[in-house]
Amino acid sequence: MKASERPIAKIIDICSNIPGALENLTYRQRDVLDRLSVCRTQYLGTMAYQCENEECGHVEHRFISCKNRSCSVCSWLPREKWKMQRENDIIPNTQYYHNVFTIPHDMSLVASQNQREVQTLLFKCVDETLKSFAETHCKCGMIGFMLVLHTWSTRLLEHYHIHATIPGGFLLNGIWNEMPTYLFPAKALAQVFRAKFCSGLRKLHRQGKLRFQGYLAELNDPAIFGRMVEACFRKKWHVHSEVSKGRDPEKLIGYLANYVYKTAIDHSRIESVDDSAVEFSYRHREENGTEKWKKMALAPQEFLRRFAGHVQPRMFARIRYYGFLGGGVKNKYLAIIFKQKESEYEGKNQKIHRSSCENIIAESKRMEPTKCPVCAGMLLSPWEQMRRRSAKDPPINNDANSNQYIQQKSCA
Fold first, then answer.
1. Distance between CA 74 and CA 87 in Å, rounded?
2. Is the dihedral of CA 245, 250, 251, 252 positive or negative?
3. pLDDT per residue over 162-187, tens digit each?
4. What tens digit of pLDDT does each residue of 249-304 get?
5. Could you say which DSSP state residue 41 is in?
6. CB distance 45 to 304 below 8 Å
């Protein structure tokens, strides 16, 4: 199957078919784009899907995907799993708040050349800001929230901001208390967040943890860097805040799921690809506040430079959980909250973790790709075939064989 015959793999077409498209990129960016360039091709091999109907016996070979979190083709399966897991944690009959913490454009450029340091600082400042407000507004109770990092605009430019999903309540002495009609004042949040972030950025520069090159090389000078931070501090920072009254928490989780397992752009927004330009659609805001979708054409090298600029550093988590939603204490505290809500918290949904790809496809209404073209039965992956065979023929484990094995091992 040629790349041109796969309309959903347009980013892959740019990486694999346009000479020189991967030039002037870092090793990490080239490594990710190299993986994307061989996604669902013969270079990664094939996987044999067999019809569940034994009388049919049809076998279909499919290319293996790269399973990279930056690949928009492979991201739908982990996205659906993550979405189902987060929906399982939604506290019943509770309002959810959606806050967005954004840094100015100049600081986004600083973050583009120091991703790990600045993004870590961004998470830390949002965490400290929300917890400081919880100490005064929630009587020192424990709140819980999830932070999702988002680094791009629809034009693929640097636009660093964090989405915070916050249940409208707090735990105080083991008792769940509902929030009032609003969470925290947005203007006050913006002021505290601005002070913490600018202070942390100056500290990173004094410690020599920030490095600049190219058109930002002058920021290595402490005086110039200080003036840039001061200019950004004088600007008006915005923190968007809304409550999920008109939007169910499930819709908010679905909205964030599109950012979690995707990098910069989805293949559906790419209009055309050729050797001279890549045309894609972007959202443009008019002066009167209305938004329209327009088209933009970039050279393939510039398009990939923008796309690769949002590839995260290796092993960097852009989804983080805090408070009673933290990974080590979430099950304990949510069980307490659900009990007070007269509901039962099931903990980690084992059906999600143990389900095969076919079950997730059924949940996301993607049954057509798994149907047998001969008899319309279900096509089973090799993992599902092995699981069904093991269920039919369980291994023999009688006491005689076990004792004989133990004696042989002890003699050895």
1. 21
2. positive
3. 999 999 889 988 899 988 767 888 99
4. 888 888 888 878 778 888 778 888 887 888 899 988 877 778 888 999 998 888 88
5. S
6. no
Rounded CA Rg of the chain = 25
Alpha-carbon distances, residue 26 vs 56, 191, 371, 382 (angstroms) = 50, 36, 41, 36
- Integer distance in angstroms from the first to the last C-alpha of the chain? 54
C-alpha to C-alpha distance for 403 and 159, rounded to whole angstroms: 65
DSSP secondary structure of 13-31: HHHHHSTTTTTT--HHHHH
What CA–CA distance (Å, rounded) separates 324 from 321? 8
Find where tokens 């169910």 sit.
248
Q: Please report which residue ranges of 267-356 form alpha helices under DSSP H.
A: 300-308, 330-340, 350-354
Dihedrals φ, ψ of 237, to 5°?
A: -90, 145
Q: What distance in Å separates the CA atoms of residue 407 and residue 300, rounded to the nearest whole number?
A: 66
User: Can you tell me which residue has the tokens 């209404």?
Assistant: 365
pLDDT in tens, 212-244: 988 899 999 999 999 999 999 999 998 988 887
Q: Where in the chain is the domain with CATH 3.40.1310?
A: 76-264+309-343
Q: Which pLDDT does position 3 carry in this prediction?
A: 38
Residue, of 386 and 99, whose pLDDT is higher: 99
pLDDT band of residue 308 (cuts 50, 70, 90) is confident
Return the closest-CA partner of residue 292 out of 302, 303, 281, 308.
281
Q: Where are the beta strands (DSSP E) in 142-228?
A: 144-152, 158-167, 169-172, 175-178
Element (H, E) at 394: none
Closest to 82 in 3D by CA, of 247, 264, 336, 318: 318
Strand pairing report for 278-285 and 319-323: unpaired
- What is the residue type of 199? S
Q: Side chain identity at 403, as an amino acid letter? A: N
- DSSP character at residue 26: -
Q: Which of 361, 113, 342, 68 is nearest to 218 (CA)?
A: 113
Return the closest-CA partner of residue 25 out of 303, 285, 294.
303
Q: How far apart are CA 157 and CA 233, in angstroms?
A: 22
Q: Which fold has domain 76-264+309-343?
A: Replication Protein E1; Chain: A, (3.40.1310)
Q: Using DSSP, state whether 230 is helix, strand or coil.
A: helix
CA gap 321, 147 in Å, rounded: 6
Q: Please indicate, yes or no, whether the overall pTM of this predicted structure exceeds 0.85.
A: no
